[in-house]
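Please, structure for the following, as tokens.
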Amino acid sequence: MFGRRRFLSLPMVVGAVIIGVVSGKAIFGPPLDEYWKKKLQEEEAAAAAAAAAAVKENDASSHTADS
């Protein structure tokens, strides 16, 4: 009943790929966008905290070197 007698045709494969990509973007696009926005904000906050800690450490070491 569902036996395949020949290979899939190229237009059928291309159509299936296009449908898969479009439906995947529709289903997973908004959650992925939200995830990456949140991830970038967290990375920026971590980088800012690390930069602030480095500045604080440099200030502390320069004050001890002056003494």
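The two ends are 89 Å apart (CA to CA). The first helix runs from residue 10 to 66.
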